[in-house]
């Protein structure tokens, strides 16, 4: 019986610390911050973006609009909000890169931010194995910057 109780307690201990990882705690803090500062109706998604600074990108709906909150992990930094209707979609970002680059394998498309400018980060692999991080502006889809990592 003591062994069974020990196993159950060990499982609960691991489960607690797994769910309360630093990433989970930072996401919860970010959500709490936007609830304090905005009239959030619904949280749709939370992603992590790490560029020069680390952010939680929270897709949410308010009473009036739907959009993305860029919440810096550093709590003294300001939260930036962009309305979904004022920018291009993930699908638009994908179409833009596929028009410019042929024969690539898209690995990821996610929202990003650099110097308080919302972006789409498109990560792809070229035939030669190079991995490229291609950034376009959220509002218009214009080229912002590119970083390439060679093998």
TrEMBL record:
SUPFAM superfamilies: Cystatin/monellin (SSF54403). Signal peptide: none annotated. Pfam families: TseB. InterPro entries: Cystatin_sf, TseB-like_dom. It comes from the Bacteria. Residues 29-72 form the Cell wall elongation regulator TseB-like domain. This is Cell wall elongation regulator TseB-like domain-containing protein.
């Amino acid at each position: 019986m003591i062994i069974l109780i020990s196993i159950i307690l060990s499982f609960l201990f691991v489960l607690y610390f797994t769910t309360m990882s630093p990433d989970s705690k930072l996401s919860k803090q970010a959500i709490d911050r936007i609830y304090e500062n905005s009239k959030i109706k619904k949280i749709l998604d939370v992603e992590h973006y790490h560029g020069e600074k680390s952010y939680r990108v929270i897709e949410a709906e308010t009473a009036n609009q739907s959009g993305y909150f860029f919440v810096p992990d550093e709590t003294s930094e300001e939260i930036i909000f962009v309305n979904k209707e004022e920018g291009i979609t993930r699908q638009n970002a994908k179409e833009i890169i596929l028009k410019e680059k042929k024969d690539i394998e898209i690995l990821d498309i996610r929202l990003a931010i650099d110097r308080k400018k919302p972006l789409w980060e498109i990560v792809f692999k070229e035939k030669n194995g190079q991995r490229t991080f291609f950034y376009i502006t959220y509002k218009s889809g214009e080229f912002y910057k590119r970083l390439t990592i060679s093998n």
